[in-house]
Design goal:
- It is elongated and about 130 Å long.
- The longest helix is centred in the N-terminal third of the chain and has 13 residues, at 28-40.
- The strands form 6 sheets. A 5-stranded mixed β-sheet has the order 3-5-7-10-11.
- It folds into 2 domains: 3-131, no CATH class; 132-234 and 297-307, Alpha-Beta Complex (heat- and protease-stable fragment of the bacteriophage t4 short fibre, domain 3), CATH 3.90.1340.10.
- The protein has helices at residues 28-40, 56-59, 147-150, 171-177, 202-205; strands at residues 3-4, 11-12, 42-46, 52-53, 63-67, 74-78, 82-89, 97-101, 109-110, 115-122, 126-129, 137-140, 157-159, 220-221, 240-242, 271-273, 290-291, 301-305.
- By secondary structure, it is an alpha/beta fold.
């Protein structure tokens, strides 16, 4: 007697059963048509503000296209089966559509609007298929973590803000990072490991380019005297005037005594002398920090694949 497969309900006929029924339904041709629908069929599911339970006919299609304007979070309920589907989320509105299994006993996910994503069911959980490896970065233009990520029972990405995460929830990310602290990429550019090239070194930049997640740097720097180029500054004394007033009234032994016939209080001529002097050259600087920020365009956020 014919039986059905567990997950997709294909007809399994026993040896010698139903001879001459290839073209009948149920029959081998009917099973092949079901397989074709599973692999290539597309069904539309309209959403608005309430839960939608998928029918057997809808579940037979390999791609489920969601449409409509969401005015509330809408669970899309799958039976407790195993298998995979492509979800093409063409909904609009500031809410999410959740892919859940009957009774929501395990993990559930939300698919980003305007995107198609593969999911698989193991009878208890709904998970993503074919996301980038754990530890991969995701750059988004958003100013906060996207709603489709935070709405997942286990968010597949975490914001790189230097916070900590649970090693129990995200064991693979814990292994990748060697701990539970996320990189802090806020206001920072990412660079690749130096790889022995000497292009990013502690001595040259203050950042250890050979160690993952090393961080440092600033958008400006105050130049110290030791950072200035060595210059030789020549200071020339072109000569200067010394004007000496009247001679002392007592001309009997002073330096201006010109003999007994000298007239007291006589005026000494102006004298010009060239001498060596020591001077300080003032650069006129104000000790203002120098901008070292290269041309840039500020995007949104960077997240890391966690699960």
């Amino acid at each position: 007697m014919s039986t059905s497969t567990t997950n997709r309900g294909y007809i399994v006929q026993t040896s010698g059963e139903n001879p001459g029924t290839w073209g009948l339904d149920p029959g081998l041709n009917g099973a092949l048509q079901t397989i074709d629908t599973n692999l290539g069929g597309v069904t539309n599911v309209a959403l608005s503000s309430s839960t939608v339970v998928l029918s057997s006919a809808q579940l037979a299609n390999g791609t489920i296209r969601l449409s409509g304007t969401l005015t509330a979070t809408c669970p899309v309920v799958f039976p407790a089966v195993q298998g995979w589907w492509t979800i093409d989320n063409q909904t609009t509105g500031s809410f999410v559509a959740l892919m859940v299994i009957t009774g929501a006993p395990g993990e559930f996910v939300a698919v980003e609007q305007g995107c198609a994503a593969d999911i698989f069911l193991d009878g208890t959980n709904v998970k993503f298929r074919n996301l980038p490896p754990v530890g991969s970065y995701l750059d988004v233009i958003d100013t906060t973590t996207p709603l489709w990520i935070t709405s997942c029972q286990k968010p597949p990405y975490l914001l790189c803000d230097g916070s900590t995460f649970s090693a129990v929830t995200y064991p693979y990310l814990n292994t990748k990072l060697g701990g539970t602290t996320l990189p802090d990429l806020r206001g920072r550019a990412r660079y690749y490991l130096d790889g022995g090239t000497g292009r990013i070194t502690t001595a040259g930049s203050g950042i250890d380019g050979s160690t993952r997640l090393s961080a440092g740097g600033a958008q400006n720097v105050t130049i110290a005297a030791g950072n200035l180029p060595q210059l030789t500054v020549t200071i020339t004394d072109p000569g200067h005037l010394h004007t000496i007033g009247s001679a002392p009234s007592d001309a009997t032994g002073g330096i201006f005594n010109q003999g007994p016939t000298a007239q007291q209080n006589s005026t000494v001529n102006t004298d010009t002398k060239t001498t060596g002097i020591t001077a300080t050259a003032n650069t006129g600087g104000a000790n203002t920090a120098v901008n070292k920020m290269p041309p840039a365009c500020i995007g949104g956020l960077t997240l890391i694949r966690a699960a």
